[in-house]
Design a protein that fits this description.
Length: about 230
């Protein structure tokens, strides 16, 4: 694994683990600087807007962000490299897209990533799709330095769009870090479910095994290359 400076743009805390948790751990083991940028919190989709100010809901958002820091610490990412967000979950369609793009651009200028990972374009979740759109705008090839932009798949969203299956074209061997990926998901207390729900240890391992088979390794994460330069 080359130690590329890597920026992960994820809609909600836990998407980064499902999408590329094994890769994050591989990158950190190789000594790569990794920053994770979230665009929304991952809680309030389960509540009515009238409840957003409820102290119980506010506490859940804070806990989800604490869990993100715990999960990413298991993958080797320091708290200072985790950028959480307060935008309401599953309501990024109420935010001007340019606001999201400009935030991503700020991190590109500041962090100077060589590689950037973000959501795939056809996820069921609206925030995921907008995260993809905003990243496309933010990574338009005006600024030098980004060598590859890659889309990840997120179980319980990407595969639920059955007519538009995810087609990975690039793979990372995560055989050595799959256990840590599953442990990092478990750090998001309450987000894991029993199999056959996609957010279960069994299904996370099954997908890694399948993607691994596509690449000739025991376990892999698959990515769709959105743009590459001199790869
Ligand atoms: Zn999400």
């Amino acid at each position: 694994m080359q130690p590329h400076r890597t920026l992960i743009v994820a809609a909600h805390p836990d998407d980064e683990v499902l999408g590329c948790g094994g890769t994050i751990a591989m990158l950190r083991e190789a000594g790569a600087p990794v920053r994770v940028l979230f665009l929304a919190e991952g809680v309030t989709a389960r509540y009515d807007p009238s409840q957003f100010g409820d102290p119980k809901v506010i506490a859940q958002i804070a806990q989800r962000n604490i869990n993100a820091i715990k999960a990413l610490a298991l993958l080797g990412v320091a708290k200072a490299d985790v950028v959480t967000a307060q935008r309401p979950c599953c309501r990024l369609d109420e935010v001007p897209l340019i606001e999201l793009s400009k935030e991503i651009e700020r991190h590109i200028r500041d962090f100077k990533p060589q590689r950037l990972f973000c959501h795939a374009p056809d996820d069921v979740n609206v925030d995921h799709r907008l995260c993809h759109q905003a990243t496309l705008a933010a990574t338009r090839p005006l600024e030098r330095g980004i060598q590859a932009v890659l889309a990840f798949e997120v179980l319980s969203s990407t595969e639920w769009n059955t007519l538009k299956p995810f087609r990975p074209t690039a793979f990372v061997d995560i055989t050595a870090t799959l256990d840590r990926k599953v442990a990092a998901m478990a750090a998001y207390e309450g987000e894991m479910r029993a199999a056959p729900h996609p957010r279960s240890g069994e299904v996370i391992r099954a997908l890694a095994t399948y993607r691994g088979a596509q690449a000739g390794v025991a376990a892999a994460e698959g990515f769709a290359l959105m743009r590459g330069l001199d790869l």
